[in-house]
Design goal:
globular, alpha/beta
Length: 198
């Protein structure tokens, strides 16, 4: 497992707890979009009874997510789905919760991806999509972890890390009106998208 994943390991339980505390969704279907090695979805599964769908375009990432889920002995029903966020293989009104940390900036079509997430959400469902370290991450840990991989990718000319007004501009193109931007720290530009399906 690469160091770029390992250095973020402490934040996944914190973000999972934040999602549970904020939205209180403990059962139903949850999609972890762009799951990578499955860390956020696994941590959320540990503290809920959610049926988890780990979704990623990369078969190697999905294979590792499956190994990680098995190693954590999850009691939840789990599924591993190879798919692009712009063409999710789920029916309308499928998911109670959609989560994604760190993949939004790498989608080829962010507008279509967000529209697809909104489509598959059930009425009353929630999506929490974006990037950051979560509100519960202590300031000292935040300072140590923030932006390490982002700086490396930007130095290579990769990764358009949208936040604040730039992210708002993408969302306006989606014609989704039931969203808001959230930040981990008060006063910072929003880098998470919360969608609440009416």
């Amino acid at each position: 497992m690469s160091d770029s994943f390992l250095h973020l390991m402490p934040v996944y339980p914190l973000i999972a707890q934040q999602i549970l505390d904020d939205y209180g969704i403990t059962s139903g279907k949850c999609l972890d979009i762009g799951t990578g090695h499955g860390f956020l979805g696994i941590e959320l599964a540990k503290i809920t009874e959610l049926e988890m769908y780990f979704v990623d375009l990369d078969p190697e990432a999905l294979e590792q997510a499956e190994k990680n889920a098995a190693a954590n002995h999850l009691d939840n029903p789990v599924h591993f789905v190879g798919a692009d966020v712009t063409a999710l293989p789920f029916e309308n009104d499928f998911a109670d919760l959609v989560i994604s940390r760190g993949s939004l900036w790498f989608w080829k079509d962010q507008v279509k991806g967000l529209q697809e997430i909104n489509r598959v959400l059930k009425s009353g469902g929630i999506a929490f999509v974006g990037g950051g370290l979560g509100r519960y991450t202590p300031a000292s840990m935040r300072k140590r972890l923030q932006g390490k991989k982002r700086q490396k990718l930007q130095a290579q000319g990769e990764g358009g890390f949208l936040k604040g007004a730039e992210l708002e501009a993408v969302l306006q193109k989606t014609c989704i009106d039931n969203y808001r931007l959230l930040a981990d720290v008060d006063g910072e530009p929003g880098h998470w998208v919360e969608i609440k399906k009416a």
